[in-house]
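Researcher: Last one for today. Full complex below.
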Amino acid sequence: MKLRELAHSRTGDKGNTSNISVIAYRLEDYARLEAAVTVERVRGHLGALVRGEVVRYALPGLGALNFVLTRTLGGGVTRSLALDAHGKCLSSAILDLEIETPA
Amino acid sequence: MKRVRLGTGAGYSGDRIEPAVELAEAGDIRYLVFECLAERTIALAQLAKRRDPAAGFDPLLADRMAAVLPACRRNGITIITNMGAANPHAASATVAAVARSLGLGPLRIAVVTGDDVTEVVRARQDLTIEETGAAVASLGDSLVSANAYLGAEPILRALRDGADVVITGRVADPSLFLAPLMHEFGWAADDWDRLGKGTLVGHLMECAGQISGGYFADPGYKDVPNLARLGFPIAEVTADGAATITKVAGSGGLISGATCREQLLYEVHDPARYLTPDVAADFSGVTIAEFGPDRVGLAGAGGGARPASLKVSLGHSDGYIGEGQISYAGPGALARARLARDIVAERLRIIGLPLREVRLDLIGVDAIHGPALSAAAPEPYEVRLRVAGRTHTLKDAERIGNEVEGLYTNGPAAGGGATKTAKEVIAVVSTLIPRDLVSPQVHVMEVQS
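Model: Here's the assembly. Have a good evening.
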């Protein structure tokens, strides 16, 4: 199943750094997110879109993960050549991640 | 128990005005805060001021004030805004003129300045640019502006002085909200725990509609009622720093645990260290509870000692960007768009355009996330070629759009809707400077009745 079935997401930008939240709809699904949505999975899924480091912060109380991607916005919104210079659509890319369906 | 209600009247420079009027008229609020100054906006405003000493503040200021001042005066609402941008004094003159023309005096307007540290930075070429690690000296003559993020302190001074309207330039967004809370509750400047809680309120509120159902709807997954009439948020705060986020009854939108969680993490890196000029706020232990429809409570934020330095946005000239677009539709659209892309790439080489960077994307196919993520997607009915390149001169930038437009008569069949643009780029990077190099000032002007 897609991550979209379990979680919602919003992307923010500060300078050349993007942050992507992954938030469980239901708090009881948080453990699945924590296990499935790892730094390696995010890096693998976004592929060439990731240009720097990926750091994950866990917020179990909110049922959320926060991914911080450095040097990934083409210099940031003020100078990027990208159509989506803020990288705002990255949240939708994350939600397309394939998650293992429980047996 | 004392409760203070604050509303957000704008979350960015071009934001909608009607929800701010709704808050002023029916929000039962004491403060209305307009956050209108993005990273780049201040650098562009500095350039505008250089061309015209009476310009350089928010272009919608007069319209916003004319729309909300009558209800704010009637209901005793204090306005706090960073719409002063690069020219808070000229902005205050504009607010005064609006107030006079509407007969809304007496009105006390406070102007906060001191964020413009361009000369300070020019004298400190050794400062390090955060993004590159190089010295400020590496920017050379391209540096056009330097604005330090001020904190809540000068706004607090203005409120203590009885201001009805506070106009600032570059101030950390959450500080616009923290200042009135410090003023109302007498929170000390080193009460890190409460300043952290107040900063959470500011952080949640600063993007206006983004916490009340804007930027949230995803039909079938996250539905938002009456989004066209989206209401802007109200924060109801008590002396202990606990907050309830709500909105005007009957307005559109949605305030839920989910909208609050999305906004809580928006533009946050380490949730345990959200740095502002006022405090190192800690959002990692925040708890969220839905009290009722469109009423969400937040507690558990904290904070530690404020950072020793202030962040400074450095605006610098970074060449030019030229762009062109053209569309293809119907059978074979993708093949024709790909052919068009190859042709433009080759022609840019043939004319020997000195490009610092270029990208050729197919909108509808791979422009947003590149070819890998979209590889399995079905072929779209219509495709739009977009070519964007970075150049050293405006003339070179214009040639990029010309090569795309040239596809009309020199490219594949049935291209349509070509557009082209070329613009100067003011890029923004940041540095840190010691606090003692920045001295915020407050000036007060009175509009008589």
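Chain B touches chain A through 51 residues (CB under 8 Å). The first strand of chain B starts at residue 3 and ends at 10.
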